[in-house]
Structures are given as C-alpha cells and as structure tokens.
Amino acid sequence: MKKTDPVRQHISNLLTKAEAHVDLREALKNFPKDLRGIKPQGGPHTPWQLLEHIRIAQWDILEFSRSAKHKSPK
Prior knowledge:
Layout lengths: L5 H11 L7 H5 L18 H20 L8
C-alpha cells in the first residue's frame, strides 16, 4: 500500500475535517433562509456575501498553488 504524502494528507484534513474550526456545512445548516441576503445592523456584508468571499478565496488559493502565473481577482 502506498503511503500518503504528509503534505497532501494535511491539506486533505484541512478541507474535509473539522479539526480546529467548526465544519462550514454544520455551521450553516440551520441558518434561516430569509436572513441570507440581509446585512446585520452595523455589519458591512450579508451572510451570502461572506460565503461567496470564502468560495472565491478558496478557489484563488487553489489556483495560486497550481500555477505561479495565476493572477488573483480584484
């Protein structure tokens, strides 16, 4: 059996296990649908905007890791 590269295993754990933080799916599963697009009082972003930021940031980190020629979006 082939031994998994420790770096790959660490990255896999970060993406699939809730080791240091609550799992995103678990954190959002009971979030009220009617509040997804509402900015909290005094808050600069809606929950949907924050989730979209996370998605774009993860994609950007992945693409940067794949290619040194990658340019991050504005």
